[in-house]
Batch of 3 targets.
Target 1
Amino acid sequence: MKKIILTIVSIGLLFVAAIGILSSKETEQTTTELLKTEYSKKPVSSADHSKFSILKQNFNSPQKVTKACISCHTESSKEIMKSNHWNWERPEYIKGRGIVYLGKKNAINNFCIGVEGNEESCAKCHIGYGMSNANTFSYNDETNIDCLVCHDNTETYTKAPEKGGAPVSTLDLSNIAQHVGKPSRSNCGVCHFFGGGGNNVKHGDLEKSLFDANKDVDVHMGVDGSKLECVECHKTEHHNISGKMYSLSSMNRNRATCEECHTENPHEDAILNKHTLKVACQTCHIPTYSKVNATKTTWDWSTAGKLRDGKPYEIDDADGNHTYLSIKGSFTWGKNLKPDYIWFNGTANHYLLGDTIPDTTHTLVLNKLNGSYTDRNSKIIPVKIHTARQPFDQVNKMLIQPKLFAEKNGEGAFWKDFNWQTASKIGMENIGLPFSGKISFIKTEMYWPVNHMVSSKENTVQCTECHTSNGGRLEKLKDFYMPARDKNLIIDYAGTGMLVLSLLGIVTHASLRIISSRKRKAKAKNGK
Amino acid sequence: MENKVYIYRSFERFWHWMQAVLIFMLAATGFEIHGSISFFGYKNAVTYHNISAYIFMVLIVFAIFWHFVTGEWKQYIPTSEHLAAQLNFYLFGIFKNAPHPTKKAVLSKLNPLQRLVYLSLKILVIPTMVISGLLYMFYRYPQKGTIAGLNIDSVEVIALFHTAAAFVLTAFIIVHLYLITTGTTPTSNLKAMITGFEELDHHHTTENKSSKEITAAEVNND
């Protein structure tokens, strides 16, 4: 009787426990599910701008639109004027340099090199009007703020190519002004997808396919999925947009991170969660970038300036990517690229205009991303490394900022006159730097952290893509021990040797036993 | 003279076979994690390795308890008596069908060589595995700064100890599997560890000083 009762009680307990475990799993939502629910609700604006009478006027200049905006949004212009989108620089503390106002005015890249002297053209990606010179531009004139480039929701607003940031003249500014709102990915993408003079030239993970990508390209932005807008991750308060690119920033602050939404321990598997201390989310979750269109991987300025029949020309590859342009030199492109991997602690150092190149025989890194295994703030991140050969002054050991753009021939611009001497002379004069007249080309590298084109969890990097001694993804990061990749040769050889010797010993011993036992038996037989 | 003696009690046999299965599992998954073999798939290997490790640690706790409660720990006290004779037997005598120099008995199951080897496993190899294994599992957490005194910057040293001990343990298993066959008959030792009973020449013989210390009262508890 006692046994029966005990059996029933224990079965009952098991049953209750089972129901408890199973049912809790059904109701408990994971972080991802909660996020999906949260972000499926798209915000609705509290104001319909087409009902404001001040916007129903015939604007004859974009500045008048700005004035109308400011008449209601009285504080916004002040916020904008503090932002790096407006100032094209941000104050950054760099170890060894102190506080530097780092931005397009003093940094140099290995694509189109720099904006100095080329503002008329480059300013089509400045959120202002009337910039013909970044140094003389009036950063205090709020009417020059271009509200529409970010807030136009009609997708018709377009900046003119070479007009210092002004829009094309044929726009219906009244209609655009009446249809403004939260920036969509087309507002951000129109500049950020085309940096460097064409689609996907710079980043590799930010390009026009993201305007309407599917989930396979980016699990967050996929129009067949969560359809997130840029500003949903790049959270913005008072026009201060989080997230930044380390081509132009140095400090570990104001970053847009995966962890903000997904937490630091997003996996069900504890071992995967342990990885997050040393491995950034992007490392596993972005197995390849430039999934749809190619990105520029190398740029050789030294071949620029060749002419056919006195005229500049271009050569394209089968996909329509330029492989040679007389104005810019030779390029190579890559699609579906595996990133390179580096340690990164969120801080960077930069080559700034006027810096002396320490060693002109080696590759010069223009934005050194700091980090190492032993640095506790460092994680492994994926990067695109863009290499170039670009002009430098052999005597002064400085990178050259050439004058590239001009509207007319004879102003010394390289893109018109194809003369490195004059372009360099004028370019360096513009920024008050010396120029010796001796030009050579130096190999440079830029590191572009890869943060977008996140794959679905089914397509993440698998364990053995790194945990292998056979050319894994982290092959080049040699400053730490990784199971399956690294072995102590002494221990492995000694250990294997010990196992082999044990086996040999056993085989010998066993053979001797068998032989001696047979001999004994034979002897015994003979003895009989 | 020969009679069947109950030499391995049920917990002892359970402990032994459980340990055998776990060590096989740990070795197979461990060497996959090390990159030497590929069988379970890397992620599974890690998961199974950790699960086996946890079970093993629970088993060790029970085994330690059992050893002290039953006094069986005394079986592992090393002795130099007959050590040379035992070595001599494995190296020469065994081929001449010489008798085992030491007699197995309930109070002295282990020959002097076994005592030495098993004791080394218990106090050197297994603790090295467990300590380095636990550090391997948890070394990241001190890095978060919670235990300032235990900051470990690299898993390398931990991994080296863990791997080295794993090789030693694997070599032991290989030799152990072979030496099973050196009993009275090739299968008598194996049968004994399965059934608990073994044919012994003498019963309740005490061969060594150490086992003489065990009182008759304890023997009767069996």
Note: The interface with chain A takes residues 33-35, 38, 42-43, 46-47, 50, 90, 94-97, 140, 143-144, 153-156, 159-160, 163-164, 166-168, 170-171, 174-175, 178, 181 of chain B (CB under 8 Å).
Target 2
Amino acid sequence: MHSIFKAPLAALAVASLGASAAFAGSHSSLSGELRIISDMSNPAPRAVMEGLAAEFDEMHPNLTVELEIVDREAWKTQIRNALSANPPDVVNWYAANRMLPYVNAGLFMDVSELWNESEFEALASTKGAMTIDGKQWGVPYTYYQWGVYYRKDIFEELGLTEPSTWDEEVANCQAILDSGRKCYTIGTKFLWTAGGWFDYVNSRTNGYDFHIALARGEIEWTDPRVRQTFDNWRQLIDMGAFIDDHQTFSWQEALPFIVEGEATAYLMGNFAVAAMRDGGLDDTKLDFYQFPVINPDVDFAEDAPTDTFHIASGATNVEAAKEFLRFVTSPDVQTRINGGDALGQLPVNAGASVSDDKFIQQGFDMLSNNAGGGIMQFFDRDFPAEMASVGMEGLQEFMVFPDNLDDILARLEDARQRIYQ
Amino acid sequence: MSSEAAQLETRSWYKRNEIAVTPWLFLIPGILFFSVYVIIPIFQSFWISFHQWDGLGEKVWVGTANYERLLGGDRKFETSFWNNVRWLVLYLLAIPAGLFIALFLNQTVTGIRIYKSLFFFPFVLSQVVVGLVFSWFYLPNDGLFDVIVGWVGIDISGGVLGNPNTATYGIIVAGLWPQTAYCMILYLTGLNAVDPEQVEAARLDGAKGWKMLWYVILPQLKPATFIAFVVTIIGALRSFDFIAVMTNGGPFGSTRVLSFYMFEESLSEFGFRMGYGAAIAVVLFFLMLGFICYFLYSMWRDEQEAR
């Protein structure tokens, strides 16, 4: 019986949302309970998510928002159970290939009609990453650039400048090593950080199209072009550019090396900036550069993973869930949650303003003007799950024992032939 | 006579079969839960292991393909299997270690209860906490272990847990700490039951030291040894928590054991290959079955002897 009333009233709520989110509150028709499970468990994102839930709750007096925050790593395995048994209304997840199992299993709700609303034209740049089989399965709320974060003060001390070519990168690194420091910190205990290095070295060596073809299983791992990637990477490994014993550290445990100046750079996503600032690196000490050119014939491709919200197909309060998705993608909310004092990342809505934070500005500029090759979602999101896990393990082994390369590539090729058949 | 027969007839069916039926009535809840949670899942695992299945969609029948891949040269499987063997062998050290600590603590000194509880303490701690503490202990450069072996000039590249040659042993040592405490408590209880008269008699016959231990004390501790053996073997085969906390199977998969590999294939972030995971589970099941059969057999034999 309630469905008769709900549709027109919900339409009213949409219309009233318009420009200012605050307006919608007084006309809200949403009622009941909205259950959200979020993986935004790190301190800053957690505050953002709790703020969003509280605000949405306040805007809709008859609606109770029930928020449950799950550890980000744990959520990667819990999402299956959460979606299939007693599903919540809204969940966090990731764009592109990572959505595929849930879309195929019918656990995410098709939200294409949201994307047909005029407000969603401002999200056009991310539509591709949310599309599977011509339908959209969720909305993005943030994305962030990857790149090299480095100790500006140490570069100045050694008279180095931001490198733009591989030769400069290697020369810089030699100078850094000569000063008794390591060039790069990294913690590969959980493997994925090595995937970031591979994404960059491979896409700079062979280009975006080659990288994505490799991810799709169309190219053999024993291909000479793949070997070329590893040869380039090995140049740094043989120099001793990476910190020792990185296989025992998580990415957070690798942070002290750059904070204390034992290593000068960190190839990372922008989410690491908050932690480095907490460690005492202010903008005079910390800076950012785009991963340098290796092969001048290929255009820049950048890692810029997109984080998302989805409606579970078993959601009980679909209207409220959709309204919440409209709410988080609205320009106003996008500006606020991606600001330097909040997530510190890039807004997905073209109408939102980019924070004046130095790193966000540089990242926005890089991704808008200097990523002609294409946008990668990251190794573990572009490659199918099994290939990603076998692959990243191989990459970690390569970083510790580069001599095992032949064996590693043979193993990866073996896995490729089995996985993509 | 006839009246007795008539009386038999008039008794209800339950009354007539009381002796035969009642045990089954008491057993029903146990049987029910044991089948639902143990027996049926075992056969479900067998069934799933013949399929390719992501846990959500349709199962695809693949016959014995999972087993062919698993036993036909899957290197992850081989590593896991040999690590399991290492765990089984080295974990048994907990039994003699536990015995000697128990013998050492089995005396009447002021405050012995405190010492006993201190020795028992690691078993009370969560395995996750023990694993975490040991991984700090093993940290390269800053870890206490690295500092100590540094004094004698040994440098393990990558740290204990970062070096594929030492990582498994490092984890086993961490596992031995609480397991030794467990065996110790089993032996302490066992020592309470040692017959003082026999000890007295042995002493009169001139037995002491090792001979006393070997010929008089140990035979009386046989039940405790059996239980310690069982829990240690089972502990070694389900050595999952330590690995997950300390190395997550790394470096490059060198510390995987079968249970961890099974988890990785079927339930981890990049897993959800339920068929393959189930195939590993089946192999692990048969390995465990070997031990379980041995335990059951020796329990049965002991019962026969007791009669």
Note: Chain A touches chain B through 29 residues (CB under 8 Å).
Target 3
Amino acid sequence: MKKEKTEGWTAFRQQAPARLRALGSAALRWLKASFSMEPGRVGRLFLRGLTLRNPAVLLLLLTATVLPCSAALPGGLGTGLSMTAVLVCTNLAGAVLRPLSSPALRIPCYLIAAAAILTAAGLVLQACFPGLTSCVPLFLLPAAVNAAMLARRGAFSRRFTPGYAAVDGLAAGIGFTIALSVLSALRELLGKGTIWGAALPDELPPVLLAAAPCGGFLLLACLAAMVRWVSERLERREKP
Amino acid sequence: MSIIQFFALSLAALVAEQFGVARRLGLPAPLDGGYRSALVMGLTVTVGLTVSMLLCWVVFAFLLAPFGAEYLEEAAFLLLGAGLAWLSSHFMTRFLPGRSERLRQSLPLSAVNWAVLGGALLAARSEVGPALALRSGLLAGMGFTVAALVFASVWERISYARVPRSFSGLPIAMAAAGLVVLTLLGFTGFPMW
């Protein structure tokens, strides 16, 4: 018994370097397969993210307009940037876990990974940017939406490799950051008469409505309508 | 966090589900079914939020707090809420096949609503306790139900109105939600200028 064990151990030790080398090349192959992307599809994903056509981002944007973190420009920008990091990480976790977990365990595995990510993000925010803690409840949302999607569809798409997933999260996060920064800058300008805490040279009368939670909704509605009107105008000018 | 903010939060979740999440998931939109589906959605949110807040308190008090891991509470809430949604959907297909289709279809969206309201509740509260968890979950769920009923009727009225083309769809829904919140804000003696 003991002899067999030692023999097995020696065999293992002899094979170990070859196995390690094989592991390295397998990891390289996996990296290459999962992060090789075609530029056209990346461009389309970016366009989709920047035009806010991701449902999770719509939910995030509407929820963020209510929370106090979008009432001033620094809060809006910080929320957007931290949310971008969380979106990239959760998407990446979902795509990496897809081939590793069996269909029955996919949702629990994904949820545990997402829970770890949101806890880490919340702790980092508390440690480094204590002014932004009001946006911590937002971190739950992408995980919840993605889990609902997983429950509905069974899995992320097979074509949605980790590379594309990361690009999708990045694009969605950038779109969210831009939209929330514009909104919070407008709210700060109208509600307090300042930009990034600095007062404007000539005093504006503050509109308290813009600083209230409903002001965010109204401003966002006007912004969305304006964007749609301008894009329709541009399309009409291009066509004839 | 004030009542009005929770009301606005529920309206935000409803509007976003109507225009993004529901269509992407292939589910019926929550506002299109009128009062009935709004009521079903509100009741699922109330029951689920209450139960998951209570369970979250149990996990917090008996599992996380003794080991000094209070910061894991939101993660625990996410896991509990999703587990509850999965479990109820499983039992419904098992024991009530074909009977409670509307209820089962409203479950994924309700789970998203639990995440919205529960995260805000966990972040906003100052003390911990079973009675507090029960009360806050129940009251937030009832507030969500009221918000869903009010906004369903507002949305019904909008569907008969002639909306400018660039406002139709999502922008008018957001503006309507803003006005509904503004009416509530009026009760607090809010100065607009």
Note: The helical segments of chain B are 3-25, 34-64, 73-95, 101-105, 107-124, 130-159, 170-186.
